[in-house]
Amino acid sequence: MHKPMPERGRAGPEVLAELDAFKAQDPRFKEGRVWSLVYYLDEEHSGFIKDAYHSYASENGLNPGAFKSLKKIESEVIAATAEILNGTEDVCGVVTSGGTESCLMAVKTYRDMARDTRGVKKPEMILPETAHVAWFKASEYFGVKIRLVPLTADFTPDLKKLKSLINRNTVMILGSAPEYPHGTIDPIQEMGAIAEKKNIPLHVDACVGGFILPFIEDNGGAVPPWDYRVPGVTSISADIHKYGYAAKGASTITYRNLDYLRYQMFVYENWAGGVFASPALLGTRPGGGYSAAWSVLQYFGKEGYRQLARETVAAVHALKAGVNSIPELAVMGNPIGPLFSFRSTDPTLSIYAVGDQMDARGWQVNRNQFPEGLHAMVTAQHLKVVDQYIADLKASVDVVRANPALAREGGAATYGMLAHVPLRGMVRKKVLEMFSEQYRAGGGELDLSSGDAAGGPPGLVDKLVNWYVQRQQRKGR
């Protein structure tokens, strides 16, 4: 049962101690056991960004004319971002609260631009099937229809199909550097040529790669062109709170020039409170996010980020080699950068059951679907746990290979069935129903995973699968 506000205030140390106690069941990210969500290096760095955030914890970036220091900080963050993305002096943009806001803003911008300059009333955007889910959210929020580009065997978008999807209602094309599910960099150079020829904006989603790919390239890594060096690229989103190692939440959305950025702005001149203008989605913009983002860029500098990239790439290469050394497993596609996925090459070996075994060994492992696989987003911190991860992975494969029935138990059964439920619209409706229940007055424990795998109560995924099984039984199937 969740507690209401106390009648009388409590002592600060007591409140802080309870906050720490809340973390007892959270993922063990400080030990390198988590492969997404958190970008942690060490306590020294963590303390630094906390201090930097605290220095502007009360300031508000809502009005750039009020806290001029915040506007200066934002301008310098954007200038630094434009430089590493090989932009000209015309590249401009804003700091946002995270990658989702950056993606939402790009869709809003290009929808409004097409409406104003071309009279488009039924906007569409072209996305590869591997586009981040934030783009699907943007479609729903802003009423921009999605046209999906199918993938080739190497998980890159089929460019012939992409060309065929362009029509008078197309307001933008999306490419990713890299895409999240498999770590593949889309063929941005070729996509840029198509976009430029058709005079359609091309946005590059580099929320993951924006603050590491430039430094991998600086270190001599082979990275295909994907940034403002590609003529057709008109905007890029890049998260500082990922591989920039800033505090949550800090992302950037930049445009090739102000002609694009203008369409992101919101202005309302008839409000009783005065004329209102806002550069992005949020009204109040937390000053701490600005200050921590600026501070971390100064803290590391280019050489610091090059070193972090070296360590990350070393971890990625060792992990991929370890995965590929296991006969039943293989890395998917041709990932370039800090993340990758791997699958089972043996039809009798359930990759989800392997994931269950890894979870039982204390790793928080993410699952992919279409195709089924396990996912790893690698940071410099993971370099110290590579050997243990691969040893546990080999042991997990051995356990599952010796016990094929594990594919029909726990999370493996849950995720395996969920990936093959054919009625995706009904799945969406049921997930919405179950998910929203967690937000009733009084709240509830939000569990998206399989409770059975951890020996706990059924999670949301379990409930969804149980619903589908019962539905099929009622139909006599």
Automatic annotation (TrEMBL):
Pathway: Lipid metabolism; sphingolipid metabolism; Sphingolipid metabolism. It comes from the Bacteria. Keywords: Aminotransferase, Endoplasmic reticulum, Lipid metabolism, Lyase, Membrane, Pyridoxal phosphate, Sphingolipid metabolism, Transferase, Transmembrane, Transmembrane helix. Its main location: endoplasmic reticulum. The modification N6-(pyridoxal phosphate)lysine is found at residue 242. Signal peptide: none annotated. PANTHER family: PTHR42735, SPHINGOSINE-1-PHOSPHATE LYASE 1. InterPro entries: GrpII_AminoAcid_Decarb (IPR050477), PyrdxlP-dep_de-COase (IPR002129), PyrdxlP-dep_Trfase (IPR015424), PyrdxlP-dep_Trfase_major (IPR015421), PyrdxlP-dep_Trfase_small (IPR015422). GO terms for biological process: carboxylic acid metabolic process; sphingolipid metabolic process. It is a single-pass membrane protein. GO terms for cellular component: membrane. The keyword Transferase applies. It is found in: Endoplasmic reticulum membrane. The keyword Magnesium does not apply. GO terms for molecular function: carbon-carbon lyase activity; pyridoxal phosphate binding; transaminase activity. Belongs to the group II decarboxylase family. Sphingosine-1-phosphate lyase subfamily. Its cofactor is pyridoxal 5'-phosphate. Coiled coil: none annotated. This is Aspartate aminotransferase family protein.
